[in-house]
Amino acid sequence: MSLRAATLSMLRQGMGDWVSGETLAESLNVSRTAIWKQIKKLQEDGYSIESASKKGYRLLEVPDVLSPDEVCPGLQTEVFGRVHYIYLEEVGSTNTYARELAASGYPEGTVVVAESQTAGRGRRGRAWHAPLSEGICVSLLLRPKLPLKEISRISLVTAAAVAQMLETQLGLTASIKWPNDIQIRGKKIAGILTEGVTDMDGVEYIVAGIGLNVNIRAEQFPEEFRDRATSVLAELGRPYSRGKLLQSLLAHFESSYQLLLAGGFGDILKEVRKRSTVIGHEVHLDAVNGFVTGLAVDIDDNGFLVVRDDSGAMQTVMSGEIEVIP
Ligand code: BTN
C-alpha cells in the first residue's frame, strides 16, 4: 500500500476524530514531514482534512471521485478491479481504451473508469454524454469461454446486474428495456454497450461498457432527452456517492457473471423477464435485418427477443432498436 493510501486509511478509520501526526508517522514508519506532505496533497485533491497543532489531523469529508483511493478499499469483488483498476480523469471512450488494453493482453477483471469522456459511445453509433464527474462511465474486460451464439447473454447479465444494484443499493425499481437500457419509471437511467472480438475458437474478449446517470440534474441532459432520461439524483432527490455505487455495481456484476459462467443463465433470464418493459407488449423493432412489428412474446435462451409478427410468424431478433406501441 502506498504512503498516501495508508495515511488515508488511518484517517478514514478515525473519520471525524483527530489522529496525531506522531501516531501517523510512527505507525507508517516515516517522518512527520512525510505525513504532512501527503496531507497537503490529499487536500489539493479535494479531501477536507482539518489540521491543528497538538491535535493532528482529522478527515471531515471525502471528494466524490472514482479514484482508486475512493473505490478500491471498499471493493467487494474477487476479480473485477482487483489487479487492474484503471482510473482516468479524461479519456475518449472507456470502451475504446479497454479494448486497446484487451488487445495488448490485459486480463479478465480489468476495470477502466473515467471522470469524463470526450467521445463516449452509445449503441448504434450514437454518442453518450455524461457531465464531468457526475455519472459513472466504466468498462469491464471479460474473457469468457462461451460459444459464439451465447455472447448476447453478456448484455443481459450486465443489464440484470445494473438493475439489481439500483434496487438493492438505492431502493429504486429498475426495469430493463431489451436489450439493455435500464429504466426507472419509463425513463433511461443507464445504457450498456457490449463490444467483442471473436475468432474461430470463440470469444477473444468482450468489453462491457456501462454509463450510469448519477448526480446529473434534469436540466443537464441535452434537451431532446430531457423527458426520456433520469438520474439517481433526480429519483432520490439527493446526490449519492458515485464511489459507493461503483463498488456495488462491480459486486453485482461479478456475481451475475459468475452465475453465467457456472451455467446459471436461466436465473438471470428469469430476472430479465421479470423486469422487462417489452414482453407482452406490441413493439416496433428496427433490427439488423429489417423492421419487425408484432407482439414481444419472450426473451429466449440466447437473450434474443421473440416476436409474433403481424402475419402470425415467430421472429427471433438478436439486437435492435425497440419502440413499445402504446
Ligand atoms: C447506450 O445506451 O447507447 C449505451 C451507452 C453506453 C455508454 C458507456 S459509458 C462507458 C462506456 N464507454 C463508452 O464509450 N460507452 C460506454
Give an account of the 3D structure:
The longest helix has 20 residues, at 242-261. This protein has helices at residues 3-13, 21-28, 32-44, 68-71, 94-103, 153-170, 232-236, 242-261, 265-275; strands spanning 48-52, 56-61, 85-91, 111-117, 135-142, 174-177, 181-184, 187-199, 202-213, 282-287, 290-299, 305-309, 314-317, 320-324. The protein is α+β, with helices and mostly antiparallel strands. It has a seven-stranded mixed β-sheet with strand order 3-4-5-9-8-7-6, with helices on both faces. 31% of the residues lie in helices and 29% in strands. The chain binds biotin. Residues 93-95, 117, 120-123, 126, 128, 137-139, 181, 191-193, 209-211 line the site of biotin.
Topology (elements, then pairings):
Layout: H1 3-13, H2 21-28, H3 32-44, E1 48-52, E2 56-61, H4 68-71, E3 85-91, H5 94-103, E4 111-117, E5 135-142, H6 153-170, E6 174-177, E7 181-184, E8 187-199, E9 202-213, H7 232-236, H8 242-261, H9 265-275, E10 282-287, E11 290-299, E12 305-309, E13 314-317, E14 320-324
Parallel strand pairs: 3-4
Antiparallel strand pairs: 1-2, 4-5, 5-9, 6-7, 7-8, 8-9, 10-11, 10-14, 11-12, 12-13
The protein binds biotin.
